[in-house]
Amino acid sequence: MAEAYIVGAVRTPVGTKKGALAAVHPADLGAHVLKELVERTGVDPEAVDDVIMGCVMQVGPQSLDIARTAWLSAGLPERVPGVTIDRQCGSSQQAVHFAAQAVLSGTQDLVVASGVENMGMVPMGSSVAMALEKGMPFPYGDGWNERYGDQEISQFRGAQLMCEKWGYKRGDLEQFALESHRRAVHAIGSGHFDREIAPIAGVTKDEGPRADTSLEKMAGLKPLREGWELTAAVASQISVGAGALLIASEEAVKQHNLTPRARVRTLVVEGSDPVYMLTGPIPATEKALKRGGLSIDDIDVFEVNEAFAPVPLAWAKETGASLEKTNPNGGAIALGHPLGATGSILMTKLVHELERTGGRYGLQTMCEGGGQANATVIERV
Question: Is the pLDDT of residue 350 over 90?
């Protein structure tokens, strides 16, 4: 049976929207991890079949197929093509899926799966804002409006609806957020991320985690909307970053003397209610476990994107997953969420955490715009 192996995984530090990385061109951020991936794996870049890069706001400096631009900006061979994809927040997790599927199908042997987003330079919503400024219609047309009406569709409302459905109060969310920061600060101080990070622009560590945050400080913040449970403290941070993984076939591993680090065990993607928007990881996880013949207790490490605190909380409640094994080194509330890059960053973290702890199985999932979610199970080898 064909296998798809992760043979390399690297990321930049995740920077804040006003930090040093915000001034780095997105193509150069992407180029940095691509070059580092080639150097760390020792692969001949001429042998790479394709570069798949996730990026959500594909406008301005992130337009014109940034996968191709980043590869060429890294000084890598012109013969290697690149394609940029958008599955919203799951874009670079989908890049991993597409890369693994190409390898599993036997049509390609070496594929780079990557992601990049500079939210300091290209703000969230830029693509919609630019279209509206030019008088173009809103993304939702007549068919959508006939089906869902003119109600508000946003990740913020979706998160609040989750709070109401699962009964989470502000205090529950703030306790979770505080633990995210605590874990991230501990991980950085303990050097858990050192092997996976490729420093850039003088930045060597993730900039987001706050060692001095507290429940008292969180309690002083205003809710995102009057009467809501949500505040900025329980939402993912606006961030800058990039990540890249090399996916190889068994034949490529032998031919290029590569070292398999993890086997891609299961790949699924699932749609969910686009109004709630953020609940997709629940059915996606169940689908991935069923397809892989695994139980929730078989998984040693979970990476569940902390778009908002109610997302992993409700996910854990519905799936029965242990929160102790979920985002053990902190999540996006502390470390940040550079949209199109987050999938590749979480997968890089997952590979390294399994290696650090000796775990066997890791599962990654994340909510995505439009009511979708990817789920990936990997097995350390």
Answer: yes
Q: How are the residues of the chain apportioned to helix, strand and coil, as percentages rounded to the nearest 5?
A: 40, 20, 35
Summarize pLDDT for 19-30 with one digit per residue, the tens: 999 999 999 999
Tokens of 218: 């969180």
Mean pLDDT of 254-268: 98
Within 13 Å, how many C-alpha atoms sit on residue 166's CB side?
Answer: 23
- The whole-number pLDDT of residue 1 equals 77
Mean pLDDT of the chain: 98
CB atoms within 10 A of CB 298: 13
Q: Which of 55, 192, 352, 367 is catalytic?
A: 367
List of residues 6+ apart from 354 with CB closer than 8 A: 262, 300, 301, 360, 361, 362, 378, 380
User: Is there a catalytic annotation at residue 337?
Assistant: yes
- pLDDT, tens digit (0-9, with 9 covering 90-100), for 224-251: 999 999 999 999 999 999 999 999 999 9
From the CA atom positions of the chain, what is the Rg in Å?
20
Residue 370 DSSP label? T
Options 181, 192, 337, 352, the catalytic residue: 337
Q: Which residues contact 377 (CB under 8 A, 6 or more apart)?
A: 265, 266, 288, 289, 292, 294, 299, 361, 362, 363
pLDDT band at 314 (very low <50, low <70, confident <90, very high): very high
Given the residues 89, 163, 181, 192, the one annotated as active site? 89
Contacts of residue 57, defined as CB under 8 A and 6 or more positions apart, other chains included, come to 117, 119, 122, 123, 124, 125, 126, 127, 339, 340
The fraction of the chain above a pLDDT of 90, given in percent, is: 98
The closest of 120, 183, 158, 38 to 339, measured between CA atoms, is 120
Pairing of strands 110-118, 50-54: parallel
Place of tokens 């890049």: 95
Contact 354, 254 (CB under 8 A): no
Verdict on whether the full-model pTM lies above 0.85: yes
Identify residue 98 by its one-letter amino acid code: F
Q: Are the C-beta atoms of residues 86 and 54 closer than 8 Å to each other?
A: yes
- Known active-site residue 181: no
